[in-house]
Write a structure and sequence with these properties.
Elements: H1 5-10, E1 17-18, H2 21-26, E2 29-43, E3 47-50, E4 57-60, E5 63-75, E6 78-79, E7 82-96, E8 100-101, E9 118-121, E10 124-129, E11 133-140, E12 150-158, E13 164-175, E14 186-187, E15 193-204, E16 212-222, E17 226-238, E18 245-258, E19 270-281, E20 284-293, H3 314-320, H4 331-335, E21 337-350, E22 355-367, E23 380-392, E24 397-410, E25 415-425
Parallel strand pairs: 1-6
Antiparallel strand pairs: 2-5, 2-25, 3-4, 5-7, 7-8, 7-9, 7-10, 10-11, 11-12, 12-13, 13-14, 13-15, 15-16, 16-17, 17-18, 18-19, 19-20, 20-21, 21-22, 22-23, 23-24, 24-25
């Protein structure tokens, strides 16, 4: 039997073909949301820290904003084997901690958390899918442990061979378009960023990450800048085939080989090792894990971000991410050299899934480099708490809160961030 494993496992697509263009256009899915969103950060040091290893940065200090944001998107049904999507997001700054009330619109698409006003093109793509092969081109969020940005590029996936999934990605630009952050899209060198990978399933339900076993291998590269290679093993089982108890384990290793003749490469080759154990009971899942990096931290492995995707479903990414912290956290492990992170994380769904909560707490011991102000001290330390809460007030209205706190820090700033708001979706 031929199937398309990963596509069905990571999306909610029901593959229905329409024979007329009107039917495909009228039977698509819309994404409309209106968000009133605020963000506040305080720190015992002012300045910036590098948020991304390819040039993005974030402000550290005392700052706060309030924004109104509107997202509008539409994905058509399949016209035979093709469908298309387009989306936009607009945000208006209402209040700025350092600049008072905003009553005007101006372009402010920079490298940091949205604090002004912006309009941006969100996920917009053309996709081909025939049951075994999917090709997506345009602006979209790939489902990958190594990408937590939108990319402008091409994503090819094939599941023609039994139990084997093959994929390739080419990305030219990357950035974010979400209710909590809109950034400028930055170019990934003149040739772009390339990824090739495969995953082989040995047992279990390939659509159920809590009940399957697989191995995967990959390589990413920018010609003349770096080459990475890595692999991982995943095993998980549901006890007695039920939905009460389950247990899983993950182990991964990746290395980054830098071209030291290139000014865009890191000074040292490096690696990233991760391992975790996960256990679940009904609607509560918990994990403990360990992450370690080499002399150049994550190196070029982290160019497009390691951790949770900005557009991907958080419920799934919680189980498959490499590092536990959400996209707005994990500063030390993102930027520290020779880092060692020990963490615990949990996900809870309560009140018939109306309340979803995610918590992660960890301690990172590392050496400084690009993390904050170019410091080169050794034996630095940072503890971090990340939390996310989603509460469905009604079927269309929900409240969202994100909290990030770095504390008991040694040699680097301590920060506290809280952001969130009300989201109306229809």
């Amino acid at each position: 039997m031929r199937f398309f494993i990963f596509f069905l496992a990571l999306t909610t697509l029901v593959f229905g073909q329409y024979k007329t263009l009107d039917s495909a256009l009228l039977n698509g899915t819309k994404k409309v949301d209106v968000v009133l969103y605020g963000h506040y950060i305080s720190s015992n040091n002012n300045g910036f820290y590098a948020n991304n290893l390819y040039g993005s940065h974030r402000f550290l200090g005392n700052a706060g904003t309030m924004n109104a944001s509107v997202g509008l998107g539409y994905t058509t049904g399949f016209y035979y084997n093709l469908r298309a999507a387009i989306s936009f997001r607009a945000a208006q700054g209402l209040l700025n901690y350092n600049d008072g009330v905003k009553k005007y619109f101006y372009i402010n698409t920079g490298h940091e958390v949205l604090g002004g006003s912006s309009v941006a093109l969100g996920e917009s793509f053309l996709e081909y899918f025939d049951g075994d092969t999917a090709i997506k081109a345009g602006r979209f969020q790939p489902i990958s442990e190594w990408i937590n940005h939108l990319i402008d590029g091409i994503w090819l996936r094939n599941g023609s061979f039994r139990n084997l999934v093959i994929e390739a990605i080419w990305a030219y630009n990357y950035g974010r378009v979400s209710y909590y952050e809109m950034t400028q899209f930055l170019q990934l060198d003149t040739t772009g960023w390339f990824h090739v990978g495969m995953r082989y399933y040995f047992a279990g339900n390939q659509k159920d990450i809590k009940n399957n076993t697989y191995v995967s291998a990959f390589s990413t590269f920018i010609p003349g800048v770096f080459v990475t290679a890595g692999g991982r093993v995943h095993w998980a089982t549901r006890f007695n085939g039920g939905n009460v108890w389950w247990f899983g384990a993950d182990l991964g290793f990746a290395g980054s080989f830098e071209d030291h003749k290139s000014t865009k490469s890191f000074n040292n080759n490096t690696f990233l090792f991760d391992s975790k154990l996960t256990i679940g009971y009904r609607n509560i899942d918990a994990m403990i894990g360990y992450v370690a990096s080499g002399n150049a931290g994550m190196g070029s492995l982290g160019i497009l971000g390691v951790g949770n995707g900005t557009q991907a479903d958080m419920s799934h990414i919680f189980y498959s991410n490499i590092q536990p912290f959400f996209v707005w956290g994990g500063r030390a492990i993102k930027m520290g050299n020779n880092a060692h992170l020990i963490y615990a994380a949990t996900r809870l769904s309560l009140l018939d899934n109306k309340l979803n909560m995610y918590f992660a707490y960890g301690a990172t011991f590392f050496d400084g480099s690009r993390y904050y102000g170019g410091i080169n001290h050794r034996n630095l330390m940072q503890n971090e708490l990340n939390a996310m809460l989603e509460f469905g007030i009604t079927q269309t209205l929900s409240a969202i809160t994100h909290i990030s706190s770095t504390h008991f820090s040694k040699g680097v700033p301590s920060t506290f961030e809280i952001n969130g708001g009300l989201r109306f979706m229809f």
